[in-house]
Amino acid sequence: MANEFAARTSVEQVEEGAELAPKFDADGLIPAVTTAAETGELLMVGYMNAEALRRTIETGEAHYWSRSRQVLWHKGATSGLVQKVVELMIDDDQDCVWLKVSVAGNGASCHVGYRTCFYRRVPLGKNASKALEFTEKEKVFDPKVVYGDAPNPTKL
Amino acid sequence: MANEFAARTSVEQVEEGAELAPKFDADGLIPAVTTAAETGELLMVGYMNAEALRRTIETGEAHYWSRSRQVLWHKGATSGLVQKVVELMIDDDQDCVWLKVSVAGNGASCHVGYRTCFYRRVPLGKNASKALEFTEKEKVFDPKVVYGDAPNPTKL
Fold this sequence. Notes:
Two copies of one chain form a homodimer. By secondary structure, chain A is α+β, with helices and mostly antiparallel strands.
């Protein structure tokens, strides 16, 4: 597929310019960091190919490339939890995007059923406990009800 | 190098367990999303290898793996802008970490000189302007003064 974005011609253009010239990796993907516009909470980190980025820009709704399912992924198409993009930012070297989103429905963004994918804390320090600490006690939804028998995207 | 973290044995262990069992990619890396603890602002997205993650946990200061320089990178070693980790989170399938940090010095985290790496907005909508909008007008520091002749990490 043709890459419809600007070609990357110089460090100055990429870092200081006004042209959108994203860098896709060897798999044609760019990481996308998604936070809740209201709270700043990190909801998820996904990946976009050029088409997902273009559709996100055009529709104002988050689209990703699902690496586990290998399909274009309109987030919320199954669960109803569409992410409306309030603001889309790109970083200095244009190899990462940041979506500030407002989530429809119950506000959950994690396929396990929690509000955010980041529901466990890693204790810090040389002698810290090795046990992760849960920061969300209860799930927002039951993934079995929402996703049924669809395969779990988590890979070992 | 031996991976000192727990082996990944089941989806349930990874998603619902208290064991830190991070998934490093084919290059031995895991993406790290770093936000300002005070404001929730996204500062940068970096990568860690197992050693960088271990050192971050042990010291409470952010360590990354520099893909452009191919070295372990104690953030702030050159610039003085050390990132003190206030909270470290891991995501559902444990293939991404989230650092909430407090930044020393002038609070900048971007090698271009801005406070955050995400200083440009992508306009949304089918007929939106193609021009990126700068959301930071002035640099916090002059990268030439701080980094001198060190090679720019941005790659085309």
